[in-house]
Amino acid sequence: MPSPRAYVAGNPAPLLTRKALPHEHLGTIPPGRQIPLRPRQAAPGLGGHGPGAAGRGDRRRRPHRAGPRTEFLAGPQTPWEEQPAAAAPATQAPRAAVDLDAEIKRILAANSGYRIGVVLADTHGGEPRSYGDGTEFVAASTAKIITAAAYYHLVEAGEKSLDAPLGSFDAAFQLQAMVNASSNDAWLLLMQDIGYPELIEYAASIGISYDPEQNLLTAAEMADVLKQLSTGKLLNAEHTQELLGYMQKTNNERLIPAAVGPDITVQHKYGELEGYVHDAALLTSGERSYALAIYTWGEDGESKERLAMIHGLTKVVARALLE
Q: Were 289 and a residue from 5, 44, 85, 123 both cysteine, which residue would form a disulfide, CB within 3.0 to 4.6 Å?
């Protein structure tokens, strides 16, 4: 696999040597023409409040939904008038319990044409549940969360600044672009600024074996990164909330987010590259929160069949643990 470093080494900013890629893909950057970075200006969908925007620290609230009015007026009654029997309240049939392990295994068996790794971890503790392929996958853009955490860590250590120029914008802009819009230009700039050896060292410090030149992770490692992030083990409270905010209302909400209802909050990072279609998310409802990583590979891309499989896995988890 060609090294991303090979295409940026010796090539000073503001030019990066890479081939323009469709909306998200990155595993390795093939050699191509030099593409100048855009001039400093507000980027569409990143600084505002549109469908692809998530401002720094932006925390969206759902409107309060008032319950139906139940006031009734009762007419006067004489002391000897018999009171009518109260109508029994309508009851809803209890929902059948979900056998989580059996349902996930059923979905994996029904999609045996794909290579699938699924890991589910309760952020409050306990051993994660693993299903399917537990070996490494090309992580594609899901690994951008490791780069983001590493950069914030350097900021907290006083070695980097979010206000420092990076490319045609500042580092804060590049972090948001990398996570919320899955920008590969931003990813390369941030990895260069961190340094590949330092990125490897940071990943090892949080228990993850990761080399950005190979870009390989297991679903279990990705779930663990999200669990550590959500519980404040990686970053301070301000940077944790900022990064989690960038993981909402991203430029691709067709995977895990599309399979849950409005009462479940989803913070996620997807990745797609040459047959790999992944999504890794934090699913939260009230006090309950789970990290769910779904890594897949197949001959097709983001097909209807692949989406149906990812949606099916997500719905089973939501029904069993969050609804």
A: 123
